Amino acid sequence: GMPCPSLAPGKLRIYSMRFCPFCHRSLLVLHAKNIEHEVVNINLKDKPEWHFKLNPAGKVPILQQDDKLVCESLIVSEYLDDAYGSTKLLPNDAYQKARQKMFIEVGSAALMPVLKIHYNKDNRLELWKEFKDKVRAYEEELATRKTLYLSGDKPGFADYMVWPFFPRVEAFSTIFPELKAPTAEEFPLLHKWIEAMKKDNAVKATINQEHLVQHTRSVLDNNVDYDVGL
């Protein structure tokens, strides 16, 4: 396979995959905080040898700077928030920080049935129903918080950690019209949050919806294309 591109001293690099929602978490933080970085995308079907030296589990994202290596999307994202910039995405208050992290667990679990459709398209109606039942947690959280975002009046850590799953919801409802995305009637607060997040600059810089739909089709057809739109 291709050799690992050499890394300039002090340069921050993220190893990613263009359509991985877990990588998108960390890319959203990089963009939201305007952190200078470079991206090396890995073909997950044909992982280079050196990938396993960086992370024996063979997963992405991986953050590298000089001799520092950080793996696991939530850990990478929190590290970036801690290490860069005076404006933090996570609150300083210990309880508020814990609340956001608790919701990330619940909010991410609600979207796992959607990710399963990639490899279980025959069970899509059942998986979609499970997602629709679980996604009510967002409506409840937003109602309790009485704010537009899960983190308050502007997008914060929790918003960016759960957002990457929502473009997949839209992709599947584009590909399979019978899978209806959450409507404003069913989920008024969630719907407002989704519309607001779509306008966010970090979101716009991270995810190209048209390319994501094409990539999703390629996964469903069992012919994964990582180079859509290049």
UniProtKB/TrEMBL annotation:
<dbReference type="GO" id="GO:0006749">
    <property type="term" value="P:glutathione metabolic process"/>
</dbReference>
<dbReference type="Pfam" id="PF13410">
    <property type="entry name" value="GST_C_2"/>
</dbReference>
<dbReference type="Pfam" id="PF13417">
    <property type="entry name" value="GST_N_3"/>
</dbReference>
<dbReference type="InterPro" id="IPR050983">
    <property type="entry name" value="GST_Omega/HSP26"/>
</dbReference>
<keyword id="KW-0560">Oxidoreductase</keyword>
<dbReference type="InterPro" id="IPR004045">
    <property type="entry name" value="Glutathione_S-Trfase_N"/>
</dbReference>
<dbReference type="InterPro" id="IPR005442">
    <property type="entry name" value="GST_omega"/>
</dbReference>
<keyword id="KW-0808">Transferase</keyword>
<feature type="domain" description="GST N-terminal">
    <location>
        <begin position="10"/>
        <end position="88"/>
    </location>
</feature>
<dbReference type="GO" id="GO:0004364">
    <property type="term" value="F:glutathione transferase activity"/>
</dbReference>
<dbReference type="GO" id="GO:0005737">
    <property type="term" value="C:cytoplasm"/>
</dbReference>
<dbReference type="InterPro" id="IPR036282">
    <property type="entry name" value="Glutathione-S-Trfase_C_sf"/>
</dbReference>
<dbReference type="InterPro" id="IPR010987">
    <property type="entry name" value="Glutathione-S-Trfase_C-like"/>
</dbReference>
<protein>
    <submittedName>
        <fullName>Putative glutathione s-transferase</fullName>
    </submittedName>
</protein>
<feature type="domain" description="GST C-terminal">
    <location>
        <begin position="93"/>
        <end position="219"/>
    </location>
</feature>
<comment type="similarity">
    <text>Belongs to the GST superfamily. Omega family.</text>
</comment>
<dbReference type="InterPro" id="IPR036249">
    <property type="entry name" value="Thioredoxin-like_sf"/>
</dbReference>
<dbReference type="GO" id="GO:0045174">
    <property type="term" value="F:glutathione dehydrogenase (ascorbate) activity"/>
</dbReference>
<dbReference type="InterPro" id="IPR040079">
    <property type="entry name" value="Glutathione_S-Trfase"/>
</dbReference>
